[in-house]
Amino acid sequence: MTDKPEILFNKASVEGAELEHIRASLESGHTSSSGPYSARVNELLRAETGAADTLLTTSCTAALEMTALLLNLQPGDTVIVPSFTFVSSALAYVREGAKVLFCDIEPETLGPDPKHLAELLDDSVRAVVVVHYAGIACDLDGIREVLKDRPDVAIVEDNAHGLFGRWRGQPLGSVGRFATQSFHDTKNFVCGEGGALVLNDADDVQRAWVLYDKGTDRKAFFQGFVDKYSWRDTGSSFGMSDTLAAYLFGQLEQRAVIQGKRRGVFERYAEGLAPHAEELGLRLPVVPEHCEPAYHLFHVLMPDHETRTRVMKELKEEGINTTFHYVPLHDSVGGRQFSARPTECPVTTDISSRLMRLPFHNNLTADDTDRVVETLVRTMTGV
Predict the structure, then answer these.
(1) What is the model's pLDDT at position 223?
(2) Cα angle vertex 332, ends 330, 336, to 5°?
(3) Domain 18-253 has what CATH class?
């Protein structure tokens, strides 16, 4: 054990006027969804992504569930989902009666492998979920090439890691028909729990608002298009409280500051570990030249599973909190139950067994990152 201060894996922080905005929201009398702060956040997100519209939701999971409703999934339909992702990326479609096909990841960006995607693609596929792991764009060129003759297949960007990242100069979250965002307290921008649905096709906007407003045309009523609102479609109560939107707005006001801090943490880790990586058998994050990361996390790939287990334990004893990441979905109990057919995802299995995430949050100091690097190197070399 150590007498040094503990380095937390994650720590959400107040970065600007969040508390003042919450007070203003409470005093305004409009604390439910679709209030003035929701409007301000949506305006900011539309401006940053170029979206036709955005809708704030209670979580990224809820936003994914909205995409499943908008796809009008029918019995026999399938959705291709990477095995290396959070369960919500698959669960949203299973809840609507679809089956999923689990795609392996490619070993560079840890996003869906276009070659495996091409093998899985058949007439039953209605959508492909892509994940920009760690906020680094997946192989969108390869994925687009595979889907070039399938305009009926929607791309859904699970962009929980990727807000303000870019691919070939284009904002992540603006490439697919839909994108979803997360504002969970482990993400770059937080409000405790929250998400957003990004609509990149204007044809989806009207129905999305009906689904969002519990299946009613409430939005049209407030816009003056109907004299009363009534039940029109399926839907649910997806909206984020305006008080949470107030907190989120305070975070997004500081987006340049927050992203600058996170980039600094990422680059300190990379610079500190790069000279030792080959010797230690570590692989650091791969950032293609045409990608600008969102700086969501920093991971290393250990030589093998046993080394990862040992190092995580020893770092914990030194007061440094690390963690692994996704357990493969393709061979989970739920994955086997809800998949259209078994698929092999050997890269996912390998990466999942070796990946270790280092402490990463807005206000991690240079001394903290130096200590993590020094301790990791010492632990692996046995010096």
Answers:
(1) 80
(2) 65
(3) alpha beta
Residue numbers of the chain with a pLDDT score lower than 50: none
Q: What is the DSSP string of 192-221?
A: SS-EEEEE-SGGGHHHHHHHHBTTB-HHHH
337 burial type by CB count under 10 A (0-12 exposed, 13-18 middle, 19+ buried): exposed
State residue 355 phi and psi, 5-degree precision: -75, 135
pLDDT of residue 47: 96
For the beta sheet containing 178-182, the strands, ordered from the edge strand earlier in sequence to the opposite edge, are 53-57, 195-199, 178-182, 154-158, 125-131, 78-82, 99-103
Looking at domain 255-381, its CATH class is: alpha beta
pLDDT at 308: 97
Structure confidence at residue 192 (pLDDT): 94
**Rounded to 5°, angle at Cα 360 from 267 and 257:** 70
Neighbours of 89 (CB within 10 A): 26
- The ranges of the chain annotated as CATH 3.40.640.10 are 18-253
Whether pTM > 0.90 for this model: the answer is yes
Using DSSP's 3-state secondary structure scheme, residue 155 falls into strand
Two tokens at 337?
A: 């139950």
- Taking each helix axis from N to C terminus, what angle separates 255-280 and 242-253, rounded to the nearest 10 degrees? 70
